[in-house]
Request: fold
Amino acid sequence: MDGSLSNRVRTLRFLNGEMTQSELGQRIGVTRQTIAAIEAGKYSPSLEAAFRIAQVFNVALEDVFQWKTDANG
Reply:
């Protein structure tokens, strides 16, 4: 089943005091470049990194990342 992963990382950063990519990266243990790639949809984070991102923003994982299949548009 084909699909794509979308995310709200950039939006959540700005809603949380305009946190920079570097700040988020430091908080979850990855580089700024990794955060930029995740935001752009060019890189899917590990499950651990995804949970850490959700935890930083104090939201559920599905409030940060969404999986869309071809069947559900």
User: Anything to note?
Assistant: The first strand starts at residue 3 and ends at 7. The mean pLDDT is 94.
